[in-house]
Write a structure and sequence with these properties.
Length: 511
C-alpha cells in the first residue's frame, strides 16, 4: 500500500496512463509501479545486517526512486562544481554564491525541471524546492517524480549524492522508537536513594558521574566559558532549571538559548516549530550536560557552569523525516558559526546515512567543534545493530553506555563496535532500570534516563570541563586529554574505544 503519496505523484500516474501510447516516451522504470515498501525495507535491512549504516549510493535507480515515491517524493542532493575534490575537508570554505557553484546547482536543477515538465509543463524551479534555495551548504532538498531523472542525475560529476530524504524502514512505524526516547521524562518519585547524593547548595548528584570522577574534577573547573549545543528535541518551557533557574546556586554568569530548526509540514503549510520540547529527550540531555548546581533538589549536570544552546531539530531520537534531516543540518550550521560553541552533543541518530546531515557535520567539524554523537540505543528490532549514523562518521566522537560492573559490559540496550571512542557508566549492573539522573520535563524532581543518549550528553559535559581549563585549546588537544586519561589507554578496545574517561585527571592535564 502506498503511503504519504504526494499530490504530484498521483497526477503523474494519471498523466502516464494517458501517455503510454506515445511512441517518443521510453521509460527505463515503470513510472506507475514503484517497488513496494515491504520489498524496499527488506532489501535495506539485509544490507544493514551485513554492512552496517545504509548508504543510498548502493541502491539501484529503481529502488532509490521507489523509496522516494513511497515517502514524500523529496530527495536530498549534494552538488559541487565538476572536478571539485575533498569537499569534506573544505566544506566550511565553500561559497555557494560563487559562479562555479551557482552553475553546478543550476545544471542539476534544470535537469530535474526538464524531467518534471514532461508531466507538468508549467512547473518552475521554485515548485521543486520544499525548503527553498540553499543558503550556506551545497545541498538541496528537491521533489522528483520522473523515474528517468534519477539515472541522469547520478551520471553527473556535479552530483555528490542523491538520496531518498524521507524514507523510513516500515518497521519503525510499528514499534516503540527507543528505550531512551520520548515518554520517559516524567519526574520519578521513587528514586533509589543509593543512586544519588545530595550536595550543596541542595542538588542531587547522579551516581553515574562518580565513575568518571566528575565531582573531583569540579575542584578544578565547572565548565565556565564553554558553550555546549545540544541538538535534540528541544528544551521544555516547563523546566525552570533550563530557564529562570539556569543561573542559580553555584551556577552563575552563564547563558541559555532555546532555538528551533525543525519545521512541520511542507510547501505553503510549512511552519517553524517552537523550541519547546514535546518529547522530553532534549530536556534530559540538556540537563545531563549543563543542569545548574542550584538549591531546589533537582539533579546537577556535568558542566554546570557551561552555557547552553538547546536546539529542537527532531521530533524524537531517530533522524528520519526530510524535515528532521534539514533541521539537524541547520542546527549544525548554527553551531559551526558560533565562536563560543566548543562542543555539540547529538544523542540522536539513524541506521541511514544522510548526506544532508553529513554536510552539516563536516561544516561544524571543520570549524573546530567537537561533535559528540550517540553510538545507538536499540529498538526491539535492532539488537543486532552496530554503531549508527552520525556516530559512525570519523568526524564525530562516538559514545556508548556501560554498566557499573567489574568488567566492561555495555548497557542493556546500548550499541557498541569499533567506531566507539569512549564510554560512560550509566546503568546499574544489578538493575537495568536504574540509570543516570537528569532533569524531568517539569518539576524539581529528577528522572532516570539511559542508553547511549545519556552517555553521550555526559561525555559532552566532560569535554566542556576539559576545554574550560584552556579556551584557546584545539579540539584535538581536548580529545587527546580525554583519550590519554581513559581506562584503556594506551590501547583501544574493539567495542568500547578508549574506555571510561577520568574527568579529574583530564582537567588537570596540560592541553
Amino acid at each position: 500500500m502506498l503511503k504519504n503519496l504526494s499530490f504530484m505523484l498521483v497526477v503523474t500516474a494519471l498523466l502516464m496512463s494517458c501517455a503510454k501510447n506515445e511512441e517518443n516516451l521510453v521509460l527505463d522504470i515503470r513510472q506507475d509501479a514503484p517497488i513496494s515498501v515491504e520489498e524496499i525495507s527488506k532489501t535495506i535491512r539485509t544490507s544493514i545486517e551485513t554492512n552496517g549504516v545504509y548508504h543510498w549510493s548502493t541502491a539501484s535507480d529503481e529502488l532509490l526512486w521507489s523509496a522516494g515515491m513511497q515517502s514524500d517524493s523529496t530527495f536530498a542532493l549534494g552538488y559541487q562544481p565538476e572536478n571539485f575534490s575533498n569537499i569534506e575537508e573544505r566544506m566550511h570554505q565553500v561559497d555557494i554564491n560563487q559562479s562555479e557553484w551557482l552553475a553546478a546547482k543550476n545544471k542539476v536543477l534544470n535537469l530535474i525541471l526538464e524531467g518534471e515538465q514532461e508531466f507538468f509543463p508549467n512547473l518552475k524551479v521554485e515548485d521543486l524546492l520544499p525548503f527553498g534555495q540553499p543558503e550556506v551548504l551545497p545541498t538541496l532538498a528537491v521533489r522528483i517524480t520522473n523515474a528517468n531523472t534519477i539515472a541522469r542525475l547520478r551520471s553527473l560529476d556535479e552530483v555528490r549524492y542523491l538520496e531518498s530524504m524521507g524514507y523510513e524502514l516500515d518497521v519503525i512505524n510499528q514499534v516503540e522508537r527507543s528505550d531512551s526516547g520520548c515518554g520517559g521524562a516524567n519526574p520519578d518519585y521513587n528514586l533509589n536513594a543509593s543512586d544519588y547524593q545530595t550536595i550543596s547548595p541542595n542538588v542531587k548528584q547522579s551516581w553515574h558521574q562518580d565513575h568518571s570522577n566528575v565531582p573531583q574534577a569540579w575542584g578544578t573547573t565547572t565548565g565556565a566559558g564553554v558553550t555546549i549545543t545540544v541538538i535534540d528535541t528541544g528544551a521544555s518551557f516547563n523546566q525552570n532549571n533550563l530557564g529562570s533557574q539556569f543561573n542559580s546556586g553555584d551556577s552563575q554568569g552563564r547563558s541559555v538559548e532555546k532555538m528551533s530548526t525543525h519545521y512541520s509540514g511542507s510547501w505553503w503549510w510549512r511552519s517553524l516549530d517552537s523550541p519547546d520540547d514535546q518529547c522530553g529527550h532534549g530536556t534530559q540531555m540538556s540537563g545531563l550536560a549543563t543542569a545548574p548546581r542550584g538549591s531546589d533538589g533537582n539533579s546537577v549536570g556535568v558542566a554546570y557552569n557551561s552555557n547552553l544552546i538547546a536546539v529542537r531539530a527532531v521530533n524524537d531520537v531517530i533522524i528520519s523525516s526530510s524535515n528532521e534531516k534539514n533541521g539537524v543540518k541547520n542546527a549544525l550550521i548554527i553551531a559551526g558559526n558560533r565562536s563560543d560553541v566548543k562542543v555539540v552533543s547529538m544523542s540522536i541518530g539513524s541506521p541511514f546515512w544522510s548526506g544532508t546531515v553529513a554536510d552539516g557535520i563536516y561544516y561544524a567539524h571543520n570549524q573546530g567543534k567537537m561533535v559528540v554523537a550517540a553510538a545507538g540505543t536499540s529498538l526491539s528490532w535492532t539488537s543486532w545493530y552496530g554503531v549508527i549514523f552520525p556516530a559512525s562518521m570519523s568526524q564525530t566522537v562516538a559514545v556508548t553506555g556501560v554498566k557499573d560492573s567489574a568488567n566492561m559490559v555495555k548497557c542493556d540496550v546500548c550499541h557498541s563496535g569499533s567506531q566507539v571512542d569512549f564510554v560512560m557508566v550509566m546503568e546499574r549492573a544489578s538493575n537495568n532500570d536504574r540509570h543516570a539522573l537528569s532533569l524531568a520535563e517539569y518539576s524539581n524532581q529528577p528522572s532516570y534516563v539511559g542508553g547511549s543518549s545519556a552517555a553521550t550528553a555526559s561525555v559532552a559535559g566532560i569535554a566542556a570541563l576539559i576545554w574550560s581549563t584552556d579556551l584557546s585549546a584545539s579540539r584535538q588537544d581536548v580529545f587527546d586529554a580525554m583519550k590519554e586519561n581513559a581506562s584503556f589507554y594506551p590501547s583501544s578496545n574493539s567495542n568500547f574505544g578508549w574506555g571510561i574517561i577520568d574527568a579529574n585527571a583530564a582537567v588537570n592535564s596540560p592541553l
